[in-house]
Structure formats: structure tokens, C-alpha cells
Amino acid sequence: MKSVGPVWKEGEKGEDELLASCYRKSLELARDYRIKTIAFPAISTGAYGFPSERAAEIAVYQIKEFLEKNELPETVFLVCYNKDSCKSFKKALEENL
Length: 97
Description:
mainly alpha, Leucine Aminopeptidase, subunit E, domain 1, 10% strand
């Protein structure tokens, strides 16, 4: 399964909601297909230019909200591609868990 995130357009084209939807739809598919484990890269934060901290906050919030209401997936991995990305996700996790 693959999810394509939005290209960053200075936050003026609904990018936050598009990114949130990307995570929600992927989680819904995982649940519907009874997938127990799913991994997400830092969607849209590379070549698409989405600000890393903002993207991490959206991802963590969407995943947390989904897991609170659904039994599957059981495990969600957040995959970082560099130290800045990891720092952003670590901060978002600390603030939201």
C-alpha cells in the first residue's frame, strides 16, 4: 500500500487536511484489510517540502486518534529519513502521548 502526500504550497492549498487525510485513509485501509502492522515514512517532508515539525504533529495526532477508536492496526511505525525528521517526530510524540 502506498500513500502520496501533498506538495507544500505555503499552507495555502489545504495541505494540512490533505496530509491528515493521507494518514487516515491509509489507517482505514489497514484496518479494513486486517493488517496488524503498518509503517509510515515522513510523508511529504522530503521532495514535497512539507515542514517537518508540522507534518510530524499531523501524523502523530491522526495516528493517535485512529488507534484510540480502532483495534487494528496493532503496531504503527514512523520511519524517519534524517535526524531532523526524527527530532520532529520525537517532539510530536512527546507532546501527544
